[in-house]
């Protein structure tokens, strides 16, 4: 086993999980992405032996980074550095802080998250759309949705588009935006290049804003950026989100769904989703669909996704016509 300084991040993570044992490691796995779990599992499998000294050093490093993160959360970088210097010495403190900001990436605009959305709106509503998009990309979906919904209509779609197409932002740009807000709100430490925004970010925000704001933004993007609008729409409501509908809405949706499409869609869905669907149809029809699923044999994932998308399209069409309501933020009006 390589010494500590030669270990890569994933090697340290594997050693830490081995040291923690299967029960604690399984709890950590629940919070990881599938590709991260696969990479870690492979690394653990390839880790034949770990010397006690290496294991101890990795655990100590993990503890020090966690301690630094806690101090930063309590009082910022300066406060953390001061406490760590007292506990570990100046050189060690700088080393730990460096690892934390490089690997865990202390995010910019943390101070903005503690600011009331209406107050923040007053500070940024007259800024350039790109600046607003940058700030909203770092906020929670709920907070960003409140601000996006309060912007003037002609600026909403522009900001949403900029969030969706944002990739990497220079630390100099982040620092400049923070400098402008610093005198009004707070200050924050600069950091390395950070991946922010993207389609997933704007989807999460649009799923939280009121329906009127979402509709206006999507209609504008369909004219100006049709491919982007199509990509966003596909991610905004997925088949499993049928759990967000009430029984009455599900029953209305099922009236327009082809039984063959429903069987294929359910074939690749979670048991929880299947149960909700079957509970909202007649017992006879439910048994028939279950039999179709059982005897249809293997189904290509592409066919499952196409069938599920057909049902999603029906759901969105019924929502647009006001026949059903999808549970979302923003105080939707329920049409009875």
Explain briefly what this protein structure is.
The chain is mainly α. It is 69% helix and 1% strand.
Q: Into which percentage range does the β-strand content fall? A: under 5%
Counting DSSP E segments of at least 2 residues, the number of strands comes to 2
How large is the count of helical segments? 19
Please state the CA-atom Rg, rounded to the nearest Å. 25 Å
Low-confidence stretches: 186-195, 329-336
Mean pLDDT: 77
Give, in spatial order, the strands making up the sheet with the most strands.
1-2
The helical percent reads 55-70%
What general form does the structure show? flat
Termini separation: 66 Å
Q: What structural class do helix, strand and pairing data support?
A: mainly alpha
The biggest beta sheet is recorded as: 2 strands, antiparallel
Could you state the order of secondary-structure elements as H and E?
HHHHHHHHHHEHEHHHHHHHH
Question: How are the SSEs placed, and which strands pair?
Answer:
Elements: H1 9-20, H2 22-29, H3 34-46, H4 52-88, H5 90-104, H6 110-113, H7 117-124, H8 129-137, H9 141-150, H10 153-165, E1 168-169, H11 171-182, E2 194-195, H12 199-206, H13 211-224, H14 226-236, H15 247-255, H16 259-267, H17 271-278, H18 283-295, H19 301-320
Antiparallel strand pairs: 1-2
Question: What this model shows, in words?
Answer:
By secondary structure, the protein is mainly alpha-helical. Helices cover 69% and strands 1% of the residues. It is built from 19 helices and two strands. It has helices at 9-20, 22-29, 34-46, 52-88, 90-104, 110-113, 117-124, 129-137, 141-150, 153-165, 171-182, 199-206, 211-224, 226-236, 247-255, 259-267, 271-278, 283-295, 301-320; strands at 168-169, 194-195. It has a two-stranded antiparallel ribbon. Helix 1 (9-20) crosses helix 4 (52-88), helix 4 (52-88) packs across helix 5 (90-104) and helix 10 (153-165) crosses helix 13 (211-224). It is flat and about 70 Å long. 26% of the residues are buried.
